[in-house]
Protein 1
Amino acid sequence: MSQESPDENRPKTIRGIDPDLYDRALALSRQTGKTVGQVINDALSNLLNALDSTADKVQEVGRAFVEGVQEGRGELTVISNVEEIEVTREELASLGRQVVFRSVKRLVLGEDVDRETFEKYVNSIVQVEELVVRNKSLPKLTVLQRCRFVKRITN
């Protein structure tokens, strides 16, 4: 059982509620057997969750746009649509710029890819089914900061 504080049960007044919206909430509460407060709480919760989700998607689109611009200017190299690839420290350094790994089924970061190399040369890892981090001294949380839509990370 949860203990409610005395303030939780006090009525809350919200000014400026549209009368038509209130009437619709009242009708819905009668249909569902819920209180008007429960209906309003559900509606606000759903709205706020949708807005949070939308903000995340907008941020993701913004990131992809910036990556596209950087790629167009030659600041990034994109490696994409590959079944499996293993990269070494030397291979990353030989490019001389950051890399985006996108749509790779299995990406293996070699044992010699240390934290410094990873942070300097790997911009992002997107839509990878399995990411293998062979260097145990490369923290997974450091790697995860550059990952989006990665299904599995292993050693």
Note: The chain has a mean pLDDT of 87.
Protein 2
Amino acid sequence: MAHYSLTPRVKLLAERLLSQNSTISTERAAILETLGGDVAGMPQLVKNAKLFNELVKQLPGYIGPDELIIGSQSSTPRAAVFHSENELRSPSAFTAFGQTSPDYLAVITKGCSPSKPKWKTAPEASAAPSAVLDWTKSTNAAP
């Protein structure tokens, strides 16, 4: 593997980050808790959009000096976000539109096998032309 070194800007950013103490930010949880009743009963995607909109409007943004990527989950650098009770009980943020993202730790440690879809035979395909490929029978088991 090639040897990589930090650029002066990245080295400065790393030193600046590591010189600061970690904190816990409750701003995000407080904003979301105030909206709890207003979004009750809405479809989950609409609820998520409204909550995100409120966060963008109310949460003060943090833009660090020398940063190319701006923004943070809190208004201070190196702050851990405190999640509300509702967020802790809700499904993962990585589950959307019925799709669940993979367990990345398992993928990194065990690897993954490629999906092998099973093609339907011609009579089956003509019976259901919109479902020529049956993805439900694909195998995604790790080796």
Note: The two ends are 26 Å apart (CA to CA).
Protein 3
Amino acid sequence: MCIRDRKLQERMAKLSGGVAVIQVGAATETELKEKKHRIEDALAATKAGVEEGIVPGGGVALICAIKALDNVQAEGDEL
């Protein structure tokens, strides 16, 4: 097995194993704590999304409704 294949195999194992290292830097201790809390919040939201599912947002429902609305025949004050 060549070095490239071994590195790819290690990378795949790390990605599928759920292991990650997030390195965070900041100029001050206060800024570092704030960044840490943001990362912890994002991690909790990601875990909840994986375990419980997600609902598309940000106007995705409106975009999906465009096709259906193209076929609607409106008249009078419905326009």
Note: The chain has a mean pLDDT of 86.
Protein 4
Amino acid sequence: MRRGSWRGVIGRVLVVVVVALGAAPRWGLGVAAAQPSAFVDYHALVDEHDTPLPAPLPAGWYFNAMGGDRGVLNAGDIRYGRDGASAYRAEVVSKAPGAQWTWGGMWYALIRQNDDDVPLDFRAIFGPHVASAYQGQVVGLRVAVKSASSLTGNSDLILRLEAKSTSGAVRASWSFPLAAQTYPKVFTAAVDPAALGAVEQLLWVVDRAQPGDAVSVDSVQLVTRVPALPAEEEAFLWSYAWLMANYNPATGMVKDKSRDGRLPAQYGGGDSMESVPATAKTAKIVYYAYRKGYLAQAQAVAIITKIADTLLRVVPRGPTGANTIWPHFTENGGANAVPPRYGAAGSEWSTGDTAYAALDLITALQLIGDPQGQLPAITSMLANIDWGSLLIDGAVSHGYDDHGARIPYTWRGFGMETLGIN
């Protein structure tokens, strides 16, 4: 990009806006709208135990493969360690004085952090933003045990699986004897999704254990039953559903990662690390999900316009008293940019993320015909940005840091981010 060509940036943006303002909504359904007539079973990984055990970073890793967190049970009696590259070993080292036996194991929060209290509905795993005809269910559980041993020949040793609700109540449990088995062995349990409903935690527990007992667990999986769709449609549906698991319909914002939990009460108590560009991108993806038949028109309109309202009316622009643009990350439903905290810098005020978010939002609103007249507000916001003050040697700065200083780095060199901003 040549020095002074920022006017070309604004020109291209405004051309897109003008086209959007004049376009008719595109509500025709796509070819994928036909309801599926067959279903297929897939094993969905909860955890494969190929990361460090749960412990503070950098030595440990608290998160599972589904985006939730995880932890060990009864660490006072059980010593946990690695057994090869992809198995965790639980070894009983003690039991309480006078106790008949002890127990240990691991818990896994499904989808989100345990403190968020967001369950996975085993009857409809793709969530409320996918029509019932395309829903999947959890119909089984699988736990791969690498080995089990007992120095005392404990024949009472069992493996117990538990499914818990957000209140911590056990919704269902399944038990398997561990003695006199041939290993490695996969233990399976059938699940009635209608009876089980919403589950927040899945646990495996080594119970009736004695000192000297040891069990190594390789992986934990859900058996899912989902519509049989072409591979490209499967990829879209699963990705869309997991994206929407991070959408908060009350605020209109989308979390950056599932494992980013809620804030403590002293910091507002809302969602942490919401992503402005991911939120706007979600608006566009929701439209395409509608075109594929995965949700109703009214539902798509409600989500897209809610996102637009939050980005335009709630999310701040900054830095204060300077050329103002959107932040990369917000918290508490978009109410504030992520501030410096825990020794880390706060969110930057980002040129790139402002450009990506604005253009995605423009596209989504244009595709639904801008029913609430929100497009002019985006036009005004973009027109009021002084892109010239953001130029450094002919390229656009990344924006402003959390102290309001212009960031010295620019969108230069080959890459999609550079193409997007320039």
Note: Residues 6-34+229-421 form one domain.
